[in-house]
Specification:
It is a single chain. The protein folds into three domains: 6-303, no CATH class; 310-432, no CATH class; 440-497, Orthogonal Bundle (Arc Repressor Mutant, subunit A). It is elongated. The chain is of the alpha+beta class. The chain has helices at 63-75, 177-194, 233-252, 298-306, 312-321, 327-334, 337-354, 358-380, 391-402, 408-421, 425-432, 440-453, 455-462, 469-479, 486-497, and strands at 6-8, 11-24, 83-84, 87-90, 100-103, 113-118, 128-140, 144-146, 155-157, 164-170, 206-215, 225-230, 260-265, 270-276, 286-287, 294-295. The protein contains 15 helices and 16 strands. It comes from Flavisphingopyxis soli. One of its GO terms (molecular function) is ATP binding. Keywords: ATP-binding, Ligase, Nucleotide-binding, Protein biosynthesis, Transferase.
Length: 498
């Protein structure tokens, strides 16, 4: 799909990219304890005896974490392994109180799947690419070191210790920053639809380890580096661009790329070495003796599958084929699960009020949501969740336009008043006297005056300058303060100018 290349002194270089995305599982409790996972708590206030690795404490798997990992795998069309096992990954670090991390190296809960991405979701003709998912395994997060609380010491916050993560490992199928960005966005959308992760990268509940290598086109894979804990789509793309350029310059300068772990500095837009890359044997993995293997039965898998919602690709196809939305509107609406849910609530209310064709209601709802409502929210600095106008109130406003009570231009005025006051549309229309008139006698009188006042333009129109018709409509609407029914104006003008 991508023809992205790095231009070096010796010619072109390809980039090979794989991502390991750590997604915090959306549960109220940790992977092996009942401690809270709420974001933003005071340090060390959400730590159980298990999380702190007190002697004699035994882990007990959180069933919901297992369920959410399975549902995520199903949403990616991946193989679900009925048998999986927890392993201990042994290393010492100050924020790892056990001295090991419980993970799944040898027998992960989810096997191979794939994600199909497009570099332009809003263009139905844009090429797509399937990116393989190697595996998803469940593991516990470590704590966090706090270096800015004391001039000479670092403090340890164990609130995140034991938080459940899904590590979603892609195959090295991406070949450009744009493809990697599309993959992360699509994966985040799927996780949000499924409800297995909130996808808030800025809060650390989803972050990516970015594996990058370069090679001459057609050559063997080069040595890769891994840049840890990248927390935005923009930074993922920047890491790939900068790290690929660094590797090309290093190789062309006679150096050798070392397999290592690196960190990204967004202020300098550069990666820097953190430590040499360890292999699996360095961690002395072995099966965790405190945890039995996970064995999933058919009833559990059936329940997981039945609980899945309509996923983004299926929803977009339905919006286009059944609801008749444009590819652009459909892609914009499905890009975020909350937006899609808001749209469907808006549409359901609109259909209830109007009793009209589903396609007409869907088109009017999509145009208003993506145009008027989004524009107002952006201006006010609000999210859709904080909208002062609910789907029910929005549907009422759209219905007043559809049934001819108010015109589209008046609807904009009504909406602004709704944003300020919170009043329903019908009340605003009644209080402000904004109801549209379809009184043919009144409209005919105004049309007659407009034509009389613009006799020269009437003559030009009759000589073939048909674009002036819009001028006459506008003048009539202006004279009637936007309260005239545009359809009635058009019919009367056509008759008068014939």
């Amino acid at each position: 799909m991508s023809d992205y290349r790095i231009q070096g002194e010796t010619g072109e270089w390809e980039v090979v990219i794989g991502l390991e995305v750590h997604a915090q599982i959306s549960t109220n409790a940790k992977l092996f304890s009942g401690a809270s996972t709420e974001f933003g708590a005071e340090p060390n206030t959400q730590v159980s005896l298990v999380d702190a690795a007190m002697p004699g404490m035994l882990p007990v798997p959180n069933r919901e974490c297992v369920r959410q990992a399975v549902r995520t795998g199903m949403a990616l069309g991946a193989n679900i392994n009925k048998y999986s096992r927890f392993d201990r990954k042994n290393y010492f670090y100050a924020d790892l109180p056990q001295g090991y991390q419980i993970s799944q190296l040898y027998h992960p809960i989810v096997g191979e799947g794939q994600i199909t991405v497009s570099l332009d979701d809003k263009d139905p003709d844009a090429p797509t690419k399937s990116i393989g998912v190697e595996r998803i395994h469940i593991e516990q997060d470590a704590g966090k070191l706090m270096h800015d609380q004391h001039p000479t010491m670092s403090y340890v916050d164990l609130n995140r210790s034991g938080v459940a993560l899904m590590e979603i490992v892609s195959k090295p199928d991406m070949a450009s920053p744009a493809e990697a960005g599309a993959y992360v966005r699509k994966l985040r959308a799927i996780l949000r639809y499924v409800g297995s992760c909130d996808g808030n990268m800025e809060q650390g509940s989803m972050r990516a380890d970015v594996n990058v290598s370069v090679r001459k086109p057609g050559y063997e894979l080069g040595t890769r580096t891994e840049t840890k804990n990248v927390n935005s789509v923009r930074f993922v793309q920047a890491v790939i661009e900068q790290e690929a350029k660094r590797q090309v310059e290093l190789i062309e300068g006679g150096g050798t790329v070392v397999q290592e772990t690196r960190l990204y500095d967004p202020d300098r837009n550069e990666t820097r070495s953190m430590r040499s890359k360890e292999d699996a044997h360095d961690y002395r993995y072995f099966p965790d003796p405190d945890l039995l293997p996970l064995e999933l039965d058919d009833d559990f898998l059936a329940e997981c599958r039945a609980s899945l919602p309509e996923l983004p690709d299926a929803k977009q196809a339905r919006y286009e084929s059944v609801l008749g939305l444009t590819p652009y509107n459909a892609a914009t609406l499905i890009a975020d699960a909350d937006t899609a849910r808001w749209f469907e609530a808006l549409m359901a209310e609109g259909a209830r009020i109007q009793g009209k064709d589903e396609k007409d209601v869907a088109t009017a709802s999509a145009n208003w949501l993506l145009g008027e409502l989004y524009g107002a929210l952006n201006r006010l600095g609000l999210s859709l969740a904080d909208s002062p106008v609910s789907p029910e109130r929005g549907a009422e406003l759209i219905a007043l336009v559809a049934d001819g009570t108010i015109s589209g231009s008046i609807a904009k005025q009504v909406f602004e008043i709704m944003l300020e006051t919170g009043d329903p549309a019908a009340k605003v229309v009644a209080d402000k006297g904004l109801k549209q008139t379809s009184d043919t006698g009144a409209i005919e009188a105004v049309v007659a005056k407009v034509l009389a006042d613009n006799a020269d333009k009437v003559a030009q129109y009759k000589d073939g300058k048909e674009a002036l018709f819009g001028f006459f409509v506008g003048q009539t609407m202006k004279a009637m303060q936007g309260k005239a029914n545009p359809q009635v104006i058009n019919e009367i003008l056509k008759a008068k100018l014939a």
